[in-house]
């Protein structure tokens, strides 16, 4: 593909996006509304998230087991069946006790955030001769603080953590699409 073709493709894509700015605004508003609705009851949103994750894992397990029957060699077939059964068992645990699962997931998230923060701080210290290393250091410290807050308030935080994360994600996506749509509108006129 030549540069001229790539630029004309990009230009036509931008024209199409600008012509459809209203859809981005509508999507943004819808996501903000859904995020606000999710924020009303973080516990219910957390349980719904766990059940959704479990259902998708169960579907994945079924597909993996089904795939085992088209595998040509017995080792691959055995691996797929065992792997699918474990994945299905994990989804069954989530479905059987979504509250305990949410609490356990919160513990794992807290521990992983602390670990990620430690690695960011180590990376910042290693790269302290580079511009912007302080931002990476600050990010690592903030990540450790959030992880420790989750761990120190565990297990009660687990009852609303996934719901809060989903709510924040929906709101940020909503405001992002809204801002993008409005920026396209200004560019279109």
Give the helices and strands as they follow along the chain. HHHHHHH
Number of helices: 7
- β content, as a range? under 5%
Gross morphology is: extended
Q: State the share of residues found in helices, binned by percent.
A: over 70%
Number of strands: 0
Global mean pLDDT: 88
Structural class: mainly alpha
In this structure, how is the largest beta sheet organized? none
Oligomer: single chain
**Overall tally of structural domains:** 1
- Please give the alpha-carbon distance between the first and last residues: 31 Å
Spans with pLDDT under 50 lasting ≥5 residues? none
Rg result:
23 Å
Entry summary:
Pfam families: DUF308. With about 190 residues, this protein is an all-alpha fold.
Give an overview of the whole structure:
The chain is mostly helical. It has one domain (23-184). The chain contains seven helices and no strands. The protein has helices at residues 3-19, 21-40, 42-68, 74-96, 98-126, 133-152, 161-188. Helix 2 packs antiparallel against helix 7 and helix 3 (42-68) packs antiparallel against helix 4. The longest helix has 29 residues, at 98-126. It is extended, with a radius of gyration of 23 Å. The two termini are 31 Å apart. The chain crosses the membrane at residues 21-44, 50-71, 78-96, 102-121, 133-154, 160-184. Keywords: Membrane, Transmembrane, Transmembrane helix.
